[in-house]
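BUG: 3D viewer hangs when loading the predicted structure for this chain

Environment: internal workstation, default settings.
Expected: structure renders.
Actual: progress bar stalls at 90%.

Input used:
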Amino acid sequence: MSDNHDCSGCVVAEVSRREFLRDAGIAAAAALALVSAPSRLLAEPLRLIAATGRGGTMRSYAVPSADGVSIDKDNEVILVRWQDAVYAFALSCPHQNTALRWEDDHKQFQCPKHHSKYRPDGTFIEGRATRGMDRYAITKSGSGIAVDLDKVFQQDTDGQEWSAAVIHV
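Structure tokens produced before the viewer hung:
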């Protein structure tokens, strides 16, 4: 067998053990992030939205066309259309103000910090919180809805207003 391979023009990559281990660690971290991403994505909001209008403390939104959850991160508002009703909630958990997450597979909100859970209408299910999600005052405004960021109702202290903070569609 003759040796017809001349490697004088070949590029030889010399990688130190340290560089190899660093690169392997980065690749492993990236692979782990990709594998765990679907479970994190399920906990994220279904739709990100922005207010279509603003005036003082009022924010205007289109009426959601179907059941689901929409988040306006800029104004920290959660809009929910659920079983022919529309609600506007504060984005943070009433227990310790951690941003809530929507779990579409369970059709509920969950606080990632202490695992309090809430129904789509904001009613408390279980966890460390002691009340439902805080609701904003909401009214029909032309073909849309208006949310008053200055009027937040707590289920335990503003029960009547909290129950009335809903639009039926």
